[in-house]
User: What shape does this take?
Amino acid sequence: MSDFSVRLLRADEERAATDLFRRALHVKELTDEEWSAIAPSMQPDRGFGAFDSELIGTLRSFDSEVTLPGGGTTPLAAVSLVGVRADRIRRGVLTALMRAQFEDFAARGVPAAMLHASEGAIYGRFGYGVAVRAKSIEIDRRRARFRPDAPAGGQISVLDLESTIEQWPSLFDALPRTRPGMIARSPNLWPGYEREVRRATTPVTTAVHTGADGFVTYTVERAHFGDPARLKIHSFHYANPDAFAGLWRYLLSVDLVDRITAEKRPLDEPIELLFTDPRDVAVTKVQDEGWFRLVDVETMLDARTYRGEPVVIEVTDPFLEHNSGRYRLSEDGAVRTTDPADLELHADTLSMVYLGGWRPSDLAFAGRVRATGETALERADQLFGTRVNPWCGTFF
Assistant: This one.
């Protein structure tokens, strides 16, 4: 199928594109009131549509920046609302949309992109890889007891719904983004978050730690009064161990709660170490949290820091062929080279190792990396390694 074109969406086409995306995910279209609430989220000139006689596919992005290994940041496109009409799938529509979007990123000097995937088999062919994974947890609130040596934490202030909505952006922006993969929240994202909390069927509460160095937003849910209740964490961010422990001490003090759940927390977040019995914290799921794409491989490889002996990697990027080639990585940065390669990998696999979420040796074990030489993988593991696991912590 080639009888369609791709272009930027006009402002008067944004609602139709959003409804198309929702139908692709089998979700009801927006009411007029709902659209009015989220229309401000649509950053101008970031949405693309595929058209034949009418709209048949769409995707968009939001401007952001991402924290890199070593603590630096770089511009990021947060890709979202990707969908193709059911009667136009598997005809090259998504591929054409992706090409147009990558060309736009290159023209604007955006070297990286991230998305949350509805299906895991879609985005690898476009160079995206699972760079960030996260765990979901459940805590038996009635059993859990803090260890005597756990940080005491400080005072807690509680905000109601309106105060939460008002203070959310400043609370989030005041905290450091300490993990690779964490992103800045575009002002365009906050109207969507507001819509979600206003739709909640139980009260939304935000607890703020002393000095605003951490906050948690949650709801408490039960089928009927008297039934077991679950405290569901929606956001949890902190700057230091005192805020982390202090907020957990508060959560376990909330009355009329049986269990506490949190989704998509950092894999290495040591929640269970706060308690005398670590089995009171159950990991209920491990899943992908962020799919990453190095749009400009040379720029991105040179943007992060490395530790250890040099490695030459050969990257194959069928979708963005200008990225293909060999790169020498060292503590001095990254440069293109003609030296023999120590590792060979595709762009999606490079995206997986870039933030430190996977070791090259693990991916070699799975057949995703080809290594030459006895020490190549050991050196690559050290070069790409990070002190903490990557985490995004923001849905878009």
